[in-house]
Amino acid sequence: MKLNLDSLDRRRFLRGAGVALALPVFGSAAKLDAGAVSQVAESAGLDADASRKVKRLGCFYFPDGVPMPLAEDPAYQDWSWFPHGNGSDFRYTKCMEVFEPLRDQITVLSGFSHPEVRQVHGHSNADQFLTAAATGSDGPYKNSISLDQVYANHVGDQTRFSSLVLSTDGGTGTPRGTHTMSFTRTGRAIPAEHRPKRVFDMLFVKQDADAARRLALSKSALDELLADANRLRRDLGGDDRERLDEYLDSVRQAEKRVEKAKLWVNTPLPKVEVNDLDLEVSPEDPQRYVQTMFELIYLAFRTDSTRVATYQIGRENAFGISDRLARAVGFNLAHALSHETKQPGGWERFSTYCGFLNREFCRFVTRLHETPEPAGQGTMLDNTLLLFGSASSAFHLSQNYPVILAGGKAMGFKHGQYVNYAGAGAVGGSWDGKPEPWMKEPEKEDEPLTKVFVTMLQQLGLETESFADRTGGLSELV
Asked: How far is Cα of residue 197 from the mean position of the Cα atoms in its chain?
C-alpha cells in the first residue's frame, strides 16, 4: 500500500500543529522567584537546583572559507586567517588581531574536519558542520542531529525555548545549501528565523491573552491527529511506516512544546531595554544587521529564555542576501573575494571581510565577558561555550576547518592557545585555474572535529564518549 498522507485529517493537522508550532511567548525562568522556579521544574520533572546551574551553547557559521596565503607569499604574515605559531606561543595576524584582548578566553583550532566529507566541494558542506554526517555532494541526501540539538534535548526543558535558530537568509534553504545549522534527531532541517523584530517579539512581547485556550485547542488537535495516524499505520507496509513515523516526528515535537508551554502560560515575560536596537534592520545594512542578530542572542541568554543558539551568518555557494554582507567593509559580494586573491591586494580584501566577521563575533564574546552571570558567579562568558567557524578553508577545501572555541571557563575549558594539528604545511594559496584543492587527495589527514564536539558535550554536562558514531575527545581543551 502506498503511503497517502491525505488519509490523515489534513485540516485538523493544520489547525492543530500549525497553532502549536507558532506558540505565543509566555516568559522566562530568569525572572521567576525561587518558588516559581521550583514549581516549573517540578512540573517538568526537573531538579530545581540543577535548573539554576546555567551552561549555554552558541554555534556560529560563516561561509566561503578563509584567506590562506602560502608562507612564501608576502601576504602570509599579515593576512592569513590562522595565527603563526603553536600552543601558547603564537601570534595573531592583522586578520585576527581583534581577538588579542580576549587571548585568554579563546582557543584557535587548525587541522580538524569531518572525515566523511573531506573530499566534497566546500560549498556543499555547511549542512554537516554541526552534524558530521556524510551528506555528500550529490545524489540521495540524509543528515543527522546537530551538536546544538543534542544539547538542546538535554537542557531545553529548563527554559522557555529549547533553542534559538537564526540565519541571515532565513528558512531552511535546500539540501547542501541550507540556511540553517540545526537539524533534528531524524536529520530534518530546523527553519531559521532572520527577521530581528520577529525574533524579539517571539522572545519578549506578549501576543494575546487567549494563550491557554489556544494551547488546549492545539493539544486536542494533536491528539486527534496522532489517533488518525495510528489507525492508518496499521494498514501500511514497513517502508511506508518508516516514512509516516518520520513525518509524525515533528508532530510529536509539537506536542512536547504544547505540554511545555502550559507550564509557562502564567509566567511573566522578561523585560529588556533595547534603546539602541533597530528591530527593523535588514541585511541591506549588513553591519547593524549582524550586530543586531548577535545582540538578540545575548538578550535571549541573559534572560535565560534559552541556553542554546545557532546563527548561520551566511549561506554557502554565493546565493542569498548573505553574500552581500561584504558591503559592510566596502566590497560587493563576499564569495567573490575568495576567488580574487590572485589580484593585487586580493588577500588583504578577503582578510578585511573575514576581519569584519571576526570583529562582530569578538564584540559578542566581549559583551558576555563584561556581563556578570545572572544565575551565579563569574561572567556570562564563563558559563557560555561558543563555537565559531566554517566547513571550508582554502578555496572550497573541505579540510582544516577554521574554528574558534570561546568561553566556558567555569566548565573547565582552558584557553589562550592555538591547537595546530595542520602544521606548517597546510594547503593554501590562490587558485591557479588547475584542479581545486578539494579535488586532490589530502597530504595529511585532519583530526576528526567530533573530538572537539565530544569534549564540548562532556563539559556541558552530558555523559557521552561519542558523537556521530565517532568516539574520543580532545584533551588539550580541558
From this structure: 20
Q: Are residues 144 and 167 in the same domain?
A: yes
Question: Are 281 and 289 a contacting pair, CB within 8 Å?
Answer: yes
- 238 and 106 housed in the same domain: no
422 and 313 both lie in a single domain = yes
Cα separation of 65 and 75, whole Å? 17
* Residue 4 covered by a domain: yes
CA distance linking residue 154 with residue 147, whole number of Å:
11
Distance CA 478, CA 415 (A): 9
Give the 3-state secondary structure of residue 295: helix
Distances (CA, A) of 18 to 21, 26, 360, 424: 5, 18, 35, 54
Q: Are residues 368 and 246 in the same domain?
A: no
State the 10-residue block means of pLDDT for the chain, 478 residues long: 43 39 34 43 45 87 96 96 96 98 98 95 94 93 97 94 97 95 95 96 73 57 67 70 66 61 68 86 97 97 97 92 97 96 97 98 98 92 98 94 98 98 88 87 91 98 97 97
Quick check: is 48 in a domain? no
Same domain, 131 and 12: no
Q: Residue 45 — left, alpha, or beta (φ > 0 → left; ψ -120 to 50 → alpha)?
A: left
pLDDT at position 271 is 84
Distance CA 272, CA 105 (A): 27
C-alpha 287: how far from chain center: 20
Question: What span, in angstroms and rounded, lies between the C-alpha atoms of 258 and 314?
Answer: 32
Residues 268/310, Cβ–Cβ less than 8 Å: no
Give the helix/strand (H/E) hosting 384.
strand 384-389
Give me the count of residues in the chain.
Answer: 478
Residues 179 and 213 in one domain: no
Shared domain check, 285 and 154: yes
pLDDT for res 274: 80
Q: What is the pLDDT of residue 258?
A: 60
Q: Is 62 in the same domain as 114?
A: yes
10 Å Cβ neighbour count for 45?
7
Please report, to the nearest 10 degrees, the dihedral formed by the alpha carbons of residues 322, 326, 329, 330 taken in order: -120
- Is residue 100 within 8 Å of 280, Cβ to Cβ? no
CA atoms within 13 A on the CB side of 296: 30
Q: Which residues form the domain of 24? A: 1-31+208-268
Q: Quick check: is 222 in a domain?
A: yes
From residue 104, give the alpha-carbon distance in Å to each of 156, 186, 314, 408.
29, 38, 28, 12
Taken in order 22, 27, 30, 33, is the CA torsion positive or negative?
Answer: negative
Domain boundary among 232, 248, 268: 268
Q: How many domains does the chain have?
A: 2
Please indicate, yes or no, whether the overall pTM of this predicted structure exceeds 0.85: no
